[in-house]
Amino acid sequence: MINLIRGFKDILPDEVALWQHIETTAIDLFQSFGYHEIRLPIMEKTELFARSIGEDTDIVEKEMYTFPDRKGDLLTLRPEATASVVRSYIQHKMYAVDPARKFYLIGPMFRRERPQKGRYRQFYQIDVEAFGIASPYVDVQMIFMLHTLLDRLGVKETRAHINTLGDPECRPAYREALLGFLNGVQAQLCADCKRRKDRNPLRVLDCKVPTCRAAVAEAPSLMDYLCDTCRVHFDTVCRTLDELEVPYIHDKRMVRGLDYYTRTTFELQTDALGAQSAVAGGGRYDGLVEALGGPPTPGIGFAIGFDRLVEVVAQGRTAAPQPLDLFIAALGERAQHHAFGWLSALGRDGVSVEMDYAGRSLKSQMKRADRLSAAHVLIVGDAELDKGAAVLRNMSTKEQSEIALDNLPETLRQQLS
Ligand code: HAM
Ligand 1 within 6 A of 80 CB? Predict the structure, then answer.
């Protein structure tokens, strides 16, 4: 037997209903706020991710599925969507007419992390990006949409953590201060952090190793180094969230695992998933479009971990079976032949319908109808065909009625709708 790859998983039909429910709820919401769907390849040139996510990040250093194609070009299965959306925005000159463009993208991402609950090597993201809007209101809109989506999905146990990472004006001074501090506690840092700190000291704040966490507990805070523009931007975000009654925590230690962020960053966290607490994460990336060869264009976005959101929403819910409008219990070959014609006509017209193809007994067909949660069962055998009328049973009230076989699909369609 050939099994699936470690860290990958199948999403079976019983689970798909919930995925579809979440997806339509999200799409509905994003469209109300003017976001449009974009679909992009799952593979890109490796360089795109290395340059945008950052060479010193865990994702680029250890987690990407990268391989040379037959000509030797390095290709990577996308570990996230932002870099690809930015690439597409630039490549198709979407900034030309109106730089303010808003997108959402849903699809698989790939990271070679250690698999555990809530962490997979192929996982799905619901990604949202907005370009060309520097206003802090769009930062608020991102967090507001996340908050509203969770609310619509009936999830109560999440909190928004927000922070600011400053910008190229104020971050360098902070970087120096942090590096000075880290040099002082160097002995307590893990090997990765010792190596990374000179090139990217902020990464150390993101390290999950307990000794590193303890070592940076007293590190200087970026809040003390923010320039006026960044401070006003962040204050406006906080004040507007208050006005919209979106609860949040200012999490001064949160730096996020990707290098492209500037100013506002945010995560939606939950205790419901054990160690993998982030259901969604995002932030502003005002320098990224330009860094990848486009005109200076602000950008901001977030991605929801779709698998994690499904797990959170599923907790406390029992999987509801996909209901079936009608099961046709056909007894005998002649009845089966007619049943198949009716089934085809009804299915074409949008009635969900199933039948038995194996000539089982009425009892076993009724059992199957029950298992499929059929709302009605049409019972037809030779006697019914001769008589020109079949029996329609309502499975919840147990009432039975006769139904003429002439124009049967049309009568059923009206009766069942
Ligand atoms: P990220 O924080 O790396 O951000 O990922 C976003 C979300 O994807 C996480 O909060 C988590 O729910 C989910 N996720 C990440 N890795 C895994 C995994 N191995 N298994 C299951 N779920 C996972 C980004 O990807 C940014 N591109 C977000 C963004 C969009 N920033 C701006 N625009």
Answer: yes
Decide the pairing of beta strands 262-270 and 374-380.
unpaired
Global confidence as pTM: 0.91
CA distances (Å), origin 131, targets 100, 101, 187, 236, 294:
5, 5, 42, 19, 12
User: Residue 198, class by beta-carbon neighbours within 10 Å (0-12 exposed, 13-18 middle, 19+ buried)?
Assistant: exposed
Specify the DSSP class assigned to residue 398.
-
10 Å CB burial of residue 65 (0-12, 13-18, 19+) is middle
**Token pair in block for residue 177:** 């201060």
Span 209-249, pLDDT tens digits = 899 999 999 999 999 999 999 999 999 999 999 999 999 99
Q: State residue 159 phi and psi, 5-degree precision.
A: -130, 145
Tens of pLDDT along 143-154? Answer: 999 999 999 999
Give the tokens for residue 81: 């969507």
Residue 81 CA, closest ligand 1 atom number: 27
Contact assessment for residue 35 and residue 103, using Cβ atoms and an 8 Å cutoff = yes
Helices (H), 121-227: 136-152, 171-184, 191-196, 202-205, 210-215
CA distance 153 to 149: 6
Beta-strand ranges (E) seen in 306-388 are 324-330, 353-355, 374-380
Give the CA angle between residues 301, 302, 307 to the nearest 5°: 155
> What pLDDT score was predicted for residue 56?
86
CA pair distance 183, 187, nearest whole angstrom: 9
Q: Residue 201: CB within 6 Å of ligand 1?
A: no
Strand partners, 304: 126, 280
**Ligand 1 lined by 196 (C-beta under 6 Å):** no
| Residue ID of nearest Cα to ligand 1 atom 23 | 305
Q: Residue 208: CA atoms inside 13 Å, Cβ hemisphere, count?
A: 7
159, exposed or middle or buried, with CB in 10 Å at 0-12, 13-18, 19+?
middle
* C-alpha angle 245-251-253 in degrees, rounded to nearest 5: 165
